[in-house]
Amino acid sequence: MRTRHVNLLITLIAVVLFSFSCFCISRMTQTSNQLTNCRNHISEFKESILRLKNKTERNRQELLNAFKEMKLDISEKERDAQNAVEKKVNASDTNETVSDAFEVLKFFFPHLRKVDRIYPDVIMGREKTGVTFALGISTVNRGNYSYLKQTLTSILSRMTLPEEKDSVVIVSIADSNENYVKSVVDMITKKFKRQVTSGSLEVISIPAYFYPNISHAARSTDDSEKLESWRIKQVLDFCFLMLYAQPKAMYYLQLEDDILANKMYLTKITDFVHNITSNNWLYIEFSVLGFIGKLFKSEDLTDFVRFFLMFYKDKPIDLLLGDIFLVKMCTPGEALEKCIERNKHIRIRYKPSLFQHVGIQSSYPGREQYFKDIYY
């Protein structure tokens, strides 16, 4: 009996343990499923966070790129605007400077005081400034003769490219004959297109209103009056050209439209000027003939023009150039030898000459000339 009770007890305990085990296994299975679900949720959350982070990073990068593009666009617009303003200001300053240079004319010619702005007719050119040398050539109609193309070919072909870049050749048409003006423009356009395009060659014409009333002398039947009118006009032509060139360069070289240049002439001029120890010189002669090959400091041109205009009716311009030294360097009563000796330090002559006169037909109608520079 006792044994049976013990067996019942053991059976009961076994049933209870089995039931508890089943319960525990069931609970553990549920917990495991919950953990698995939890892990899945966590993984999904991480993936969502990662996708959001990537999306945010892309948005951030896109925003930065947009800001960079906006900044670059704004900078370019500001730079373009600044360049446009500077270009306009520089052009305005250049024109105003050249125009101001011509204001001195109003002191000598009352008829110009009514003109608001004295300025040449710029036919071709880029109004180049800031160079070392400006070379001035005044030209007029010589009828069936013309030496201008030969002169320009010599002047331009005997420059190096750096010298051409650092200089400007100015052809001033001092003639109202429209056919002649057109022929000069056509010739230069065809023959010297590269130099015109680069700004190293300019063509201007002197406006008719510039000249005082000397037409009566030009129409006179008296040869002496015609010659006087021609000389007067020649002085005025040179003065106008010098005033136009003055703000463009450091030095101004006066040439004529019927000359030839020596090889490497501008290199020789540059070296000679740089080797001069004193800066007190007024001009340097690179030819002994007339007004050819005279080099001036541009800062002195206005003073020269003022002197020429005071006596433009009295003498040709090359003789007036010599008179300047008598006025500036010679004192009354002193020996001429002393004056001449002082002149050597401010009126310098270069040898051999770098320019030769080749024109036979003079710009004065009907006259022939055979002047040659013996030092060339």
From TrEMBL:
One of its GO terms (molecular function) is acetylglucosaminyltransferase activity. Keywords: Coiled coil, Signal. PROSITE patterns: PROKAR_LIPOPROTEIN. GO terms for biological process: protein N-linked glycosylation. Residues 1-26 form the signal peptide. GO terms for cellular component: endoplasmic reticulum; endoplasmic reticulum-Golgi intermediate compartment; Golgi stack. Residues 46-87 form a coiled coil. It holds the Pfam family MGAT4_cons. It comes from the Eukaryota. Residues 97-375 form the MGAT4 conserved region domain. This is MGAT4 conserved region domain-containing protein.
